[in-house]
Design goal:
CATH architecture of the largest domain: 3-Layer(aba) Sandwich
GO molecular function: ATP binding; UDP-N-acetylmuramoylalanine-D-glutamate ligase activity
GO biological process, one term: regulation of cell shape
Subcellular location: Cytoplasm
Protein name: UDP-N-acetylmuramoylalanine--D-glutamate ligase
Radius of gyration: 22 Å
Helix content: 25-40%
CATH class of the largest domain: Alpha Beta
Structural class: alpha/beta
Number of helices: 17
Number of strands: 20
Oligomer: single chain
Largest sheet: 9 strands, mixed
EC number: 6.3.2.9
Length: 443
């Protein structure tokens, strides 16, 4: 059996190792340049690879193709493979075929990283053999190949779900759905919603779907497209019979006939969205019969994800906050909503078909100056040009931070919350966040 892998990044190389272990003849092809650390792994495992272009003859004779989530289905090479009847799948689909572990799959437009890390912390504290994987850290496939776990908390993107066939997590968590990545979904929101709901499409009556019952996009879709899994809603506005709800600084979680409560006052990370993330993770933990005390301790000690409303430093009584992970409008909405000080906002990057209207009231109320950081800032200038006195264009992170330093006064906050993808000026959102932190430390 010949396994061809398109993309030599983390998911590609993890799949290559697992494929080799499972007896496939493996070939890795990357249109760009494979990083040295990944090349070394491929050489070490004696896996054939190429980069800087695709040799079609070596790809179109595959029995199975795993494509990296960054490659769109519309790419001509993918179209050729599909036309030839060669199955094209994602890494989570491939890896799930070779493990008997209990899978907790977490998706959503925002909050999935935080929820995945919360889940992983609870599992670790419960002494379960477990890791967080998927979009976090080492790939799912690499773990399955080299050190298979009993439990996986998997952060899963819509692009990964687009390439599944039989993948079915025992517990699926859907944090929320807001317009994102519409450039990959023909600018149709319903295509993106359908993609997110694929996390539940192979679940059975023995599985669970935990979801935000306050999100009308999710509840409307479920009414029209019922799923087989047992539904576990969470809500901060109404009580629920099964799942989780919030009232008077307390979360109540009900699964089957047992319930538990925990105070949100003792949680280290604040904000409504984090309360929801905690409800989702705690519900999943309860379904896995983890002790109440363990769930409480884990969530009270949880510090949050890097690049997500991360406090970097205070300089001259100005707080610098790194929210580089806000790659869409909804994530930036949360960030601006949580600001209590006058804010100098650093925004911009690759626009994914953004509609900035939802941010207007918050910008009017909280933002004193805007610094655009992107190759093309025209849409931002058009949207916010009349709202603030100062709007500046920059091309480098160091420049953006220096301008922010000059524009801010005692008691202000400087917030990097881009609402856009990072690929115009940075490798990824982590690179963008690290550059921000470095520039702040160098002030």
């Amino acid at each position: 059996m010949r396994l061809v892998i398109l993309g030599g990044g983390e998911s590609g190389v993890g799949t290559a190792i697992l494929g080799k272990k499972q007896g496939y003849a493996v070939f890795v092809s990357d249109f760009g340049t494979i990083k040295t650390k990944y090349r070394d792994v491929l050489k070490n495992y004696e896996i054939e690879w190429e980069d800087g272009g695709h040799t079609e003859a070596k790809i179109l004779n595959a029995d199975l193709v795993m494509k990296s989530p960054g490659i769109p289905d519309k790419a001509p090479l993918i179209q050729k493979l599909v036309a030839a009847g060669i199955p094209v799948i994602s890494e989570i689909e491939f890896a799930s075929r070779y493990t008997n572990a209990t899978l907790i799959g977490i998706t959503g437009s925002n909050g999935k990283t935080t929820t995945t890390l919360m889940m992983a912390q609870i599992l670790k504290q419960a002494k379960f053999k477990s890791v967080a994987a998927g979009n976090i850290g080492d790939s799912f496939a690499r773990w399955v190949a080299l050190d298979d776990q009993d439990y996986y908390a998997l952060e899963i993107s819509s692009f990964q779900l687009d390439g599944i066939v039989g993948f079915a997590p025992h517990i699926a968590i859907l944090t929320n759905i807001t317009p994102d990545h519409l450039d990959r979904y023909e600018y149709k929101f319903e295509n993106y919603i359908r993609s997110k709901f694929r996390i539940a499409e192979n679940q059975t009556e023995n599985d669970y779907l935990i979801y935000d019952a306050d999100d009308p996009v999710i509840t409307d879709w479920l009414e029209q497209h019922p799923v087989k899994a047992r539904l576990m809603p969470f809500s901060i506005s109404t009580t629920v019979k099964q799942g989780a709800f919030y009232a008077q600084d307390e979360i109540t979680i009900i699964t089957d006939d047992t319930s538990m409560t925990m105070s949100t006052k003792s949680m280290a990370i604040k904000g409504q969205h984090n309360t929801k993330n905690a409800m989702a993770a705690a519900t999943a933990a309860k379904l896995l019969s983890i002790r109440k005390a363990t769930i409480r301790e884990s969530l009270e000690g949880f510090q949050g994800a890097e690049h997500r409303l991360e406090h970097v430093l205070k300089i001259n009584h100005v707080s610098y906050i790194n929210d580089s992970k806000a790659t869409n409008v909804n994530a930036t909405f949360y960030a601006l909503d949580s600001m209590s000080a006058p804010t100098v906002w650093i925004v911009g990057g690759v626009d994914k078909g953004n509609d900035y209207k939802d941010l207007f009231p918050l910008v009017n109320e909280k933002v004193k100056a805007i610094i655009c950081l992107g190759k093309d800032n025209s849409k931002l200038l058009q949207a916010f040009g009349n709202m603030v006195e100062t709007i500046v264009e920059t091309q480098f992170m160091s420049e953006a931070v220096k301008v922010a330093y000059k524009l801010s006064e005692k008691g202000d906050a400087v917030l990097l919350s881009p609402a856009c993808a990072s690929f115009d000026l940075f490798e990824n959102y982590e690179d963008r966040g690290r550059q921000f932190k470095e520039a702040v430390r160098n002030l």
